[in-house]
Write a structure and sequence with these properties.
This protein has 713 residues and is α+β, with helices and mostly antiparallel strands. The strands form 5 sheets. It has an 8-stranded antiparallel barrel. A hairpin with a 7-residue loop joins strand 17 (574-575) and strand 18 (583-596). The chain is extended, with a radius of gyration of 33 Å.
Length: 713
């Protein structure tokens, strides 16, 4: 009997030890770190070599099963939240590709879960760190744990005293991908396997409740910040703030689709029967699209194809889209992307398609089941949206409206119409008030009215005037009326069909993509890297009037925002013939600052700088030697001037400046005469001169050097 008891105790101990070892293997996590703004795996970076060795040990620890891995990736909280989410996704994908190449048996056993910014880990690091004073730790944790939007918290951290030291201590450790063992699958299929299969683990992490919770969390993190001055002029309604939005999203999460089931049918039917846009007004009284066919619009900044939750109304609009999907109010998953009519048509057509895909990626990340249900439509340049903005806006007079509408409604090709718009006196107001409202993407729930009609694109709106492109435009999208969401029928265009117009709603006019590959379900993996945007560094110029009188010169001007700039100028004519009969020598240095007048700059366009009326101050000094023939003056001078000028915008990078200045000039001079051989100068007398009047005149050609930037990470 004693023997039996002892045997059972030993057996229980062995089983307990085995269970703990198995549990340890299940719970093991490994971290791989990444350099700043990079998704490249580096074995020699930080502790990555040991991490890769530990991964190999986990895989080799059991020859009978293959572990199921989940990769959760993060970025440090620097720069735009949405970009950091894309960066985290690229980090997770790079690690997944590495593991699947090195260990082919892991294919199908790895899931990824990208997170934008590692705020929770930052909280843990700060809480444990003993180098911080108690007051500093409390202040940092107050910011990190606040309910503010991530970008607002980052700005508050940057304004802290000692931020650079804090940054060096912690931020390297926040750029990582964490690999966890979440299950296992047998290498050889066998009945009665006790292990947790990867498919079960994946289903568990992708359950409906988890997805809804994740939606609430993402929306809570991307609450629209009403204190952001950059977007204040474009707001249509006030947002209640972080707490209210968080509670709203929580209620959506907890109620689920069942709570909306009573309104689903009525909402769907009303959406189907009406394709009109619901518009409101911004602070300036200008129309801003709130929805297309009852579904909110997602806005994009100039030349960007990735979603910024803190831009305009995107946070609340995304929250409403998610609510409508959860409630079953959206039944036709067709997304159209649009661009404003600036620049080459081909570029804008491509940009519009990428914007539609960006909204799809955002939603598929929250609702993976929509991957094969969402159809992409390329809206191209949003001329119909611009027409609606001009007709309903108050920024233009009646005569200006008539002029702009004549251009928009003309049969000219898009480039010609854009050039005519740029030539109008009201173009800057259009660019500032209206164009930001038509760079968007939205569900087009009433596309083709679900009637099976063939939709033809009106000539002159979104079709480039290019024979090769026209040849591509021989097919059109037709929605299948059998009820399959996202199904499409491609048929030849019937030139007798009247284009479908949805009463001027922005983005609601159904368009035919220029590229026949554009209207396809987006099932391929796309590069999530946002397209770089050009930002100005500095401008180099030369004064053509100085050049005309043989006075070589150049200037460097550095813009500070869209209003201010500082510059330095160097003038250096240094002409002296071998015969010494005459002399034309001067070295002159200028420094100054300029301020641009007016409020017509496009805040969404970083290249809308160094143009229009400006005033400034100029300080200069130098010395000279002017000898027309055998006699002349040498001396030093100083000047202080006030200046006024105007800069014409010749293109994104080119400017033409005209400037005049007046102020004070003071010089101490010496008069001399040369001997008969012109080899020696004979001093005669000296004097001083103070003069008030014109001191500067210039006409300069200027080129702006730029850099491509995606924001700080």
């Amino acid at each position: 009997m004693l023997y039996g008891i002892t045997l059972r105790v030993v057996l229980a101990f062995v089983l307990s030890l085995a269970a703990s070892i198995f549990s340890y293997a299940q719970d093991r996590t490994v971290r791989v770190y990444y350099p700043y703004d990079d998704a490249t795996l580096m074995r020699d970076y930080m502790d990555n070599a040991n991490a890769f060795a530990e991964i190999a040990e986990i895989i080799a620890s059991n020859s009978e099963v293959v572990p199921c891995f989940e990769i959760i990736s993060y970025s440090s909280p620097e720069g735009d939240w949405n970009y950091n989410l894309q960066l985290s996704r690229r980090r997770a994908k790079s690690l997944k590709r590495y593991l699947e190449r090195k260990y082919p048996e892991l294919v199908g056993n790895i899931t990824i879960n990208p997170n934008a910014e590692a705020w929770e880990e930052l909280h843990n690091l700060v809480s444990r760190d003993r180098r911080l004073s108690e007051s500093s730790r409390a202040e940092i944790l107050r910011i990190v744990d606040s309910d503010k939007a991530p970008d607002a918290k980052e700005r508050e951290l940057r304004d802290m005293e000692g931020y650079k030291k804090f940054y060096r201590h912690f931020f390297r450790s926040l750029r990582y991908a964490q690999i966890s063992v979440v299950g296992e699958t047998p290498k050889v299929a066998a009945s009665g396997t006790d292990g947790v299969e990867c498919a079960d683990a994946i289903v568990a992490t992708d359950s409906t409740s988890t997805v809804i919770s994740d939606v609430s969390e993402k929306l809570e993190e991307s609450v629209y910040n009403t204190e952001t001055a950059e977007h204040a002029s474009n707001d249509t309604t006030a947002v209640s703030g972080s707490a209210a939005t968080a509670s709203d999203s929580t209620s959506v999460a907890s109620s689920g689709s069942a709570s909306h089931s009573g309104s689903t049918s009525s909402t769907s039917s009303s959406t189907s029967s009406s394709a009109s846009a619901v518009s409101s007004s911004n602070n300036a009284g200008e129309p801003t699209v709130a929805s297309v066919a009852g579904v909110p619009v997602v806005y994009f900044r100039y030349n960007e194809d990735f979603i910024r939750p803190d831009f305009k109304h995107n946070a609340e609009n995304l929250q409403e889209i998610v609510r409508m999907i959860q409630a079953g109010e959206i039944t036709d998953f067709t997304i159209a992307g649009f661009s404003s009519p600036e620049g080459p048509v081909r570029t804008n057509v491509s940009l519009s398609l990428r914007r539609a895909k960006a909204l799809k990626r955002y939603l598929v990340n929250l609702f993976p089941e929509l991957e094969n249900k969402i159809t992409i439509v390329n809206g191209g340049e949003n001329w119909s949206g611009l027409r609606e903005q001009v007709e309903n806006g108050t920024a233009l007079t009646d005569s200006e409206k008539a002029e702009i509408l004549n251009i928009i409604n003309s049969d000219a090709n898009p480039e010609t119409k854009e050039a005519r718009l740029r030539g109008t006196t009201s173009y800057r107001r259009i660019m500032h008030k209206y164009l930001p409202n038509i760079r968007c993407a939205s569900f087009v729930t009433d596309i083709a009215g679900r009637t099976g009609q063939t939709v033809a694109e009106p000539q002159g709106d979104n079709v480039p005037d290019d024979p090769a492109t026209h040849q591509l435009d021989t097919v059109s999208t037709q929605i299948d009326t059998t009820g399959a969401i996202g199904s499409q029928v491609v048929t030849p265009v019937d030139t007798t069909v009247t284009p479908v117009d949805t009463t001027g709603a922005i983005g609601s006019q159904v368009v035919t993509p220029v590229d026949t590959t554009a209207v396809q379900t987006d099932t391929l993996e796309h590069n999530t890297t946002p397209e770089p945007q050009r930002y100005p560094l500095f401008a180099v110029s030369t004064n053509l009037l100085y050049d005309a009188v043989a006075a070589p010169n150049f200037a460097i001007e550095v813009p500070i925002g869209q209003k201010w700039s500082v510059y330095g100028e160097y003038t250096f004519p240094w002409w002296l013939p071998a015969s010494n009969e005459w002399c034309y020598e001067m070295l002159k240095w200028d420094i100054g600052a300029r301020y641009r007048l007016g409020n017509n700059f496009d805040k969404n366009d970083p290249m809308d700088i160094l143009s229009g009326h400006f005033v400034g101050v100029d300080l200069s000094a130098g010395y000279y030697d002017f000898e027309p023939l055998h006699k002349g003056y040498q001396g030093e001078f100083q000047m202080a001037s006030l200046e006024y000028g105007y800069a014409w915008k010749l293109g994104d990078n080119w400017r033409l400046d005209a400037v005049i200045g007046a102020g004070w000039l003071g010089t101490h001079y010496r008069y001399y005469e040369a001997d008969p051989t012109d080899q020696h100068l004979i001093y005669k007398y000296s004097g001083k001169l103070n003069w008030m009047g014109p001191t500067k005149l210039g006409v300069s050609i200027k080129y702006i050097f730029t850099t491509n930037r995606r924001g700080e990470r």
